[in-house]
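A quick aside before the break. I want you to see a complete sequence-to-structure record at least once, exactly as it would be stored in a machine-readable document. Don't worry about memorizing anything.
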Amino acid sequence: MTEARPKLFSSLPFILTPNVSSSSIPTINYDSSRKSPFTVFPSIRETNYGESLGLRAKFQEKVGSSPGYDPSGSPDLIHWGKYFGTTSNTYNQNDFTKQTASESGSGYQKHDDGYIGFYHYANGISFDYLQEDIEEYILQLIGIEVVDDKYQFKKSELASERYVHSKREMVITYCSYNIFNKSDFRARFVVHMNSSLKSTPVQIDKSYQVIPNPSGSAPGSHRKTLLYNHHTIKQLPLSYWDELKASHLIRLFHQVDNPASQLTGLVNYSNFIDSKAKLKHSVRLLAKFLNKGHLCGSNLSYGLPTICGNKGDQSKKTNHYRNNLVNTLIRLVQLDLSGAVNQYAIDEIRAIYPNCDFDYVILKLLKVQNNTNVEKQYLEVIHRHLLTNSMYTTQLGLILIEQVKFLITKEAYDQALLIAKKCVQILPLDFECWFNLTLCYILIKDYENALLMMNSLPVIINPKQDFADLDEISGTKDLFMSTFVHRLNNVNEETISDKSFKSYFPLPQVPVENYSSSRTRNKDVKISGEDMIYEGSIKKMWCDTPLFTPYLRHPINGNYFYQSPLINCSAREISSVDPQLIKLTGPSSVKGLFTSQSSGSLGFSILDFNRKSTWGRCYDLLSYFVATVGWDTIVGLKEKVFTTDLKTSDGEFVVNNGQENSPKPSVYCEKWLEQLFLIIYEDLRTIMVISSNDKQQQHSALEWEMLGLLGWGVKYNLEESISSLITSVMGTSVEGGFDYFGTVQLLEIYDEFILSETTGSRIELFNDDYDLKFFSNKLILKLSSNYFEPFVQTLETKYLSLEFVMLHLMKLISWDLRWYNYTPNYLVTKILTKLIIKYDLIFVSTGFRVVFENNKKSVKAPKKKFNSMNFFSYLSGTSKTKLEENFEFVDEDTIFDYIERLIRWIESLREE
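That is the input. The structure line, written in tokens, reads:
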């Protein structure tokens, strides 16, 4: 047996777990006395035993070669097979299937010999102790501990309802995909049960496999499956474990920050970022694999990977520098407010790749540097690269794009245009080059050439593409989503019973000692008399909402639930929305169709479609163009620049088309652009008609939300769009619900206008490189200096006060925690870190306490509460009076305690 050691599976990024590595990456000192909190796992029941494992094998056959199958792979699958017997009630009673209750008991035979399968998914297990970490995770899952070098069930597990008294063994399978090796690592644990004495030690057989992808082998070759037992597994090279850890790290942030890529039942752990030492360790691990980043997949919003025409550079496509690995690296360094981890990453890259191989990545890191302005270093990297490298390389083309964005920030539009033209010459098929060239022409007010350049954008539109099913996420079918949607649409019964819902998705909880002493003394907070406490809870959201609205018993995730608020509401609520508004913003909208054809996936979300595909980014750019010059002007330009006579159209593709000395040709307007004009026109027309309706005060909360989302995206009356979103968020809150889509959109608006310039770096102010968000609305107002400052002031005082933002940030954090996202998503960490930079740690922490206390239900005699007016008037000069009958929190909610520790964790990354 192995020596006892600390547990590593932390649900808290601010509980500093140990970090030891047996891999080829050097180890880090750790505190062996520190104990990590136990984590509650989701446990979704399979309709057919082993179905999730079968889908895993199917995923492996198609990963990286079929639409909808992301090269970064699916999250880890943990499958637990338990024997109940074919005559048991548990085996024969399953109320969550695609069959009705009358059908499920007749003629439906399962060939599983009395076994039932349960599963969940996981990201973020760091494998510091290699295969032993997997074993520890499985032991925690099934409730077994090691006593005197023997396995036995914990007393709490024996007393729980989930313990099965059985003669047959339990089988647990753990699957983890290796991006770089293109293989699936599987660990299988067979637990031999003792039916006579529960306290008797049990025997566990362990075996391991490395299963290569069928499509990952070279032509004519065949990689064999490698088999190991608990002794020979030590022969698996340490380099393989490094690859597996890097794969985990990339998938963690790729999926936690993209709800559309999250499977139901996914747990996102935080082991990679628990401390500054572990954060630096993660950064070094990724730097090691930079030259293999193209294997991890890239954002299709950049367009298809392309290459410079220079023969000496043909091996380096754009996805060599723009990929999910580089994105993860950018994400990690932003967590440290001191900027030390960022500098550490740059030093590591230069040490591993001394020949300027990744100067482009270094520029990306410098742009997100916290705590200081590094413009000088940024320009020095560009200058040095220009002096020491060939002019025509893929990397240089990408570096010049960064210089274009820098010059736009400095309002040097003419210089930016000259360099943007050079970028197009170096990378003539790169979407980003043409996008920035078009933007430069708009900024210098050469609108005719801007329209011509936009017509030349290499937009991906593939109407004949074979799409994966809507319920396929990250290459794997979401069984829960598939069944839930089927029952929602076809079965005249409850979508999922309250009993099954609580069984599948138990409320997250951790040891009570992880909370403050005052919270620990509150006996009402403890769970069933045990030393456990709910993690970041809001009772109103976690318990009341799913109890009274069964159709909301699911996370906002995947290609289905993440599409639109219209998907996540009742038929009665939908009936209150204007049919034309549903047509434009619903899942069957034309923009949804084009987004899917452009991104290669059925996934479409009204929240981020304008940055998830090349077509969506063109929607954003053209709507910005329209808002800048006006609809009538741009229609006149369109008629002047383009011709409908195909015979006079110049079909030749000219890279330097539109230069000052070349004549303006008569060009045929591309079909996709023609359709885009019609879509934007219809969006503008619809929102103007509905907004001007005399009965607008009778809009439902849902209709207000759709008006706000549509208006903000198409850039119509920004203040009115924000007002609509706030009306929706507050109206839903009064009714006891949580408006996920409205909350996320308002927080993104707050970041764009209030917080986007709070960091030390001033290199770029109109783009977020991590999620490819173009601050187009901000740029519109920035170009009108007389409007920007008053708009921001109005936003802070009238609409998005700090009190309002903190309240809804708390609710979003709690929502994510309810669905096991223990690693805070990008929007949450971005806003929290910037608030700490703008104010300070104590001020922000005190602000959250004031918000919590003033929105908490009064259960005792009235007494004087924290006065939010005095606190927040320092910033905005305004305050809202809390109505006694409305409340967001109750005394036993732990969300404030969680956020308080989350803030301390962010601060600890800066101080260590």
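Two observations worth writing down. Residues 679-768+780-911 form one domain. The mean pLDDT is 85. We'll return to this after the break.
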